[in-house]
Amino acid sequence: MSEYYQIKGYIRHNRNTYTREAITEELLKRGYSQSDIDDAWKSLLEEEHILENASKESVTESGKFWWAFAAYFFILPVIIGILARIVREKSYYIMSNNSFNVFLIGGVITILSGIILSLIFWDSDKPLSRGVFYGCLFTTVTPVISLGVIIGICSAG
User: Fold this and answer.
1) Which of 9, 39, 126, 131 has the fewest CB atoms nearer than 10 Å to its CB?
2) Alpha carbon of residue 100 to chain centroid
3) pTM of the predicted model as reported, rounded to 2 decimal places
4) How many CB atoms lie within 10 A of CB 88?
5) Which of 108, 49, 107, 46 is nearest to 80 (CA)?
């Protein structure tokens, strides 16, 4: 196992100077086996991949997360409610149900846009994508849970 760590150390030390082929060739000349060299390279690449994908700061410590969350959890439902109220006032004399349609369509568009935006930015901008995703999730789940509690209380009484 000592050879394995020697190989990894040699690769780390010379990686920025020489190509992979040159390093492998030199290690083969020194008597190391091809399988040990390949294992060391694979291990180093996996370690680098893990380090690159590890977030340097917590997602919730970022301002982007909280702005995106607030936009989807607080601001967009209010905007949809205001639009539904305006449409209701305008169509009061027509006796139609346009305000519910606006509310329903606005809610569906908000949920779909939240899912699509979070998928688009999932790998490139973690705080933004997670904020949009959780804001969208809580905007959807919170009213459903509230309605479930209210319906349960009403049917129990």
Assistant:
1) 9
2) 31
3) 0.50
4) 16
5) 107
Beta-carbon neighbour count of residue 111 at 10 Å?
Answer: 16
For 32-46, write each residue's pLDDT tens digit.
888 888 888 888 888
Position 43, amino acid: S
Q: Tell me the C-alpha distance between 92 and 96, whole Å.
A: 7
Between the CA of residue 148 and those of 78, 80, 134, 137, what are the distances in Å?
Answer: 22, 22, 20, 17
Same domain, 80 and 152: yes
138 and 72, same domain (yes or no): yes
Q: Per-residue pLDDT tens for 72-122? A: 888 888 888 787 777 777 665 555 666 677 777 877 888 888 888 888 888
Which residues constitute the domain of residue 63? 59-156
Could you tell me which residues come within 8 angstroms of residue 91 by beta carbon, excluding any fewer than 6 positions away?
98, 99
Domain count of the fold of the chain:
2
